[in-house]
Amino acid sequence: QVQLVESGGGxxxxxxxxxxxxxxxxxxxxxxxMAWFRQAPGKEREFVAAITWSIGRTxxxxxxxxxxxxxxxxxxxxxxxxxxxxxxxxxxxxxxAASSSGRIDDSVNYTNWGQGTQVTVSS
Length: 123
Known about the structure:
Elements: E1 4-7, E2 10-13, E3 18-24, E4 33-39, E5 46-52, E6 58-60, E7 68-73, E8 78-83, E9 92-99, E10 110-113, E11 117-122
Parallel strand pairs: 2-11
Antiparallel strand pairs: 1-3, 3-8, 4-5, 4-9, 5-6, 7-8, 9-10, 9-11
């Protein structure tokens, strides 16, 4: 199974920026989309952003649209999440995931998950 490794989390002040990276251990042609989800303590996991691997179609949660940008580098098997204008409510563990089919904003379609990276936004 392809391993996904996230990095780039950390502590940042409100209004600041971070860029998360997710590296896949190898390229698999069954991957349809990659996405970022987040889960804060005591809360349900929520969709953040997704991108299809072939044509780069993107989707965003309303809460991050206009502030976050998802992108990919096929040659490096890497997906990025550029997070700008961060807010304290963005504080969460962020997870990278891979899907082989289905709606790209639905976590049920993602079968391969990374270990997560923590993002803390101070007010």
